[in-house]
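Reopening closed ticket. The problem is back. First fold of the pair:
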Amino acid sequence: MDLRTRVLQSQMPDPDDAPAWVNDELHVGNPYLHGFYAPVMTEITADDLEVEGTIPADMYGAYYRQSPNPMFRPKFDHHFFDGDGMVYGIYFRDGKVSFSRKYVQTEVLKDDINGVASTRNGMMAEFDLRDAEARGYEEVRNPDYVRDTANTTLNIHNGKLLTGWYNAGSVYELDPVTLDTKGLQDFGGSLRTTLNAHPKTDMRTGELIGYDYADFESFYTYYVWDKNGALKHVARIDLPGPRLPHDITITENYSILHDWPFFHDPEMLKSIGRRVVTFKPDLPSRIGVMPRYGTQDQVKWFEFKPGYVLHMVNAWEEGDWIIMDGCMQPDPRIKRDPAEGPLASMLAYMRVKSHLYRWRMNMRTGETSEESLDDLNVEFCLPDVDLYGQKTRYSYHQHIPLEAKTLIFTDLVKYDHETLKREVVSYGDGWLGSESAFARSTNGGAEDNGYVVTICTNLETYASECWIYAAQDITAGPIAKVKLPSRCGPGFHATWVQGEHIWG
């Protein structure tokens, strides 16, 4: 079997540093614990890393990336979302590069370290809802009974690096230089415990915008915090029922909420202790646009074709129109492979089928339009994150092969949202990449004057490198490769933070 086939089928040998427990009876058949996905067990800090090529003088800041990385043997079948959060930081300053990798010290991880038995199970186990039933379902948050691992999102706000979970999870504050966990962040007690996976920082105002939701609540609690972390606005937004959203979008004056027809049945969750998520193709996708400091009666809901979106690229205003681009899944229904046994649902859900899409909403007339912008299977999409809410021309995506058995990124894709042209560059035979972030040049200039940064891992040697591309010509290949001190595990999301927000 050639290397490409082994990669696509997730049939890679385990690296030498994989923990022994990945081969016990319960976990030996789980591809998200083997090969490229084998847990990385050590925290590392290293300075003055070896570089092939030259680090650009106008590159000043840090590439941060999250990783689901279990520290201990999972007690149940392992879901990829259950791995303990491990944050990578690669720092660029004065032409030199340093590296750090540390676990997020979440409440569940601290319990594991201290040998405290937890009732908060992972995604593949039955949820323990006895306490939720006793207290009243509407009074509990998802992390009260779900393993909340803070392994998904990364966001800079008020000089603090914030991380959270793919669902509505607790927010943890990290030191952006050392990656030490500073503790839970509740913004002076104003946050009800959890926040959606991808809140947005508006770098023009310094505000952080996001929302809270829970499995048994038919509403969002929407928040705006100012640049200093003080609560500026809060509003309740009612919904037809409990929902499972992921992202939020902002423009200069508006916030955009998503109600996709892909959600769970709360009564079934109560009866069997598991989320059963179902696509409702007879229902429309609903997108709610509200003034940033608006109330429920100011939300304008627009209806579109049914589907589901994990990640939006960006949104902006053009006259009376709101324009929003993202990665659309027209049909998120899964196709289980019975041969995969109890892991079939988890593996099927991770085989994302999405493409670049555009939604348009007229705030004056109520008119809408929508269109597919490309047919390539892409996700994990980032513009220049400092331009969220402003019109952006470029974004950087990961190509996910449709035939892959697991979630892998084989190619870097740059989109021009004006010409609708794309550029694609392969990471190369035997290499897989990570979500790629745009690092703006300190010299300013055009929107794409800067660099695209990612972590790549070789599947024969398991060596990992940080690759740097000139954003204006990604097809030329990396202009520099940083040799990282150890193998890096796979990750969900990344971001770039300019140096002034880290060191001043």
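Second fold of the pair, where the issue appears:
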Amino acid sequence: MEILQKILDLLQYNPKEPLLFNTGLFLFLFLFLALIYCALKNKLTARLIFVTLFSYYFYYKSSGLYFCLLAIVTVSDWIIGKRIAQTHEPEETDGGEPQNGRSRQARLWLILSIVIDLGLLAFFKYTNFFAGMIAQMIGENFQPWDIFLPAGISFFTFKSISYTVDVYRGKMKPVDSLLDYAFYVSFFPVLLAGPIVRATDFIPQIRKPLSISKHMLAFGAYLIVIGLFKKMVISDYISVNFVSRVFDNPTLFSGGEILMALYGYSIQLYCDFSGYSDMAIGISALLGFNIPANFNAPYKADSLSDFWRRWHISLSSWIRDYIYISLGGNRKGKVRMYMNQMIAMTLCGLWHGASLNFVLWGTLHGLGVCIHKFFSQTIMHHDRHYHPSGLRRFFSVIITFHLVTFLWIFFRSQDFNAAALLIKQLFTKFDITLFPAIVAAYKFVIALIVFALITHWLPDTWQEKIIKLFEKGGVVVCALAITFVIYLAMQVKSSDIQPFIYLQF
């Protein structure tokens, strides 16, 4: 009975132990899922119900009873999507002239969808932020309310908004089946931290016959291996053994150590988030679903514009399609284009966190993108798809990487005071003679940073070769590779499971 009770406790929601890809419990549950999933290969409805229920349980293990929010967003937007489609077509009068009333109704339904989704997001994520700002402006003290932030709410609300907007724009027909839509919104690999999968890409795959080729198996296993290695070996080790120590107490460290910590955080954040995306895409592939890539070697970018084409692609393309273009994009003159760009990037910063630090981070990125566009397109008359080559590209990449790295200060710091203190230490306590001592003290951390940067620059062909090896070896090689990276991770991991950074967004 004691063992049974421990199992039941393990399966219940525990806010201190969320169900993550890098936990042993998830591995056990996923193996159980895979067995049932294969057994239901030819029973589509049963398979969809099973995966949807598992996805809701997955969310329950991450956010408790707040899984009800997922159901609210799903049901409301499914109904609204159908109503938009029903009221979108203009109705002809007796005189043969179109009547615009139904189009206005469609717009009102769309507004309702946005209000519900953004209303939930705003309440749980931004209430304390805006209340604190108002209190500060009127000179009142404010104690933040105890409002729980459900995991991944920023991701599944954006996912659902894109569906109703696409239906409104006529890019897709509404989903007839509530089960299909619930499967799409709750699909557990991408539920908590993306990628933000579009309904236009995902929903057509739902009712296709289940077919997992050897290539998909190898591709999925490879991404899981790479994702686990990025997260549990590189990101967690750098964070626990160096980066967190420096950012938490910057006055105890020299400018050289802070510079190294900035490089480390650039790698930590990339490996943490891209590692999650790799695992999410890999797990999806093992279930027979193709999910678009979310990262494309972002530190190879030769400008901030190029960086946002490579970093968190699902979010940056979402911001472009549903905010920037909705504001008018580049269709209303250059001044308006720059304004739209600034608004979009500022909102992108706010999406990442309810803090003025994130707002400033997004605004500075927007300013950088605008400056690059002005210089490249207006001054140099380059095509918007232009990329420098040779030595010019080398220096462009170096400058962009260091600019992105510097701006991570505002992303990582708790507030402006912490960011200012870090910058002060960086520029006033810098002593190049201390570098040999820094390298000696943090040789393993620096080795991982250098290793991550080198592999970041490797051509895509090396990944293709590894995937082919996995494909030739079949299930046995894939399983051995995953087992090996888990074993390796166990050797270097800290005592506690390190949560994924983007789960807070």
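Update: turned out to be a display glitch only; the data is intact. Residues 137 and 300 are 42 Å apart (CA to CA). The radius of gyration is 24 Å. Please close again.
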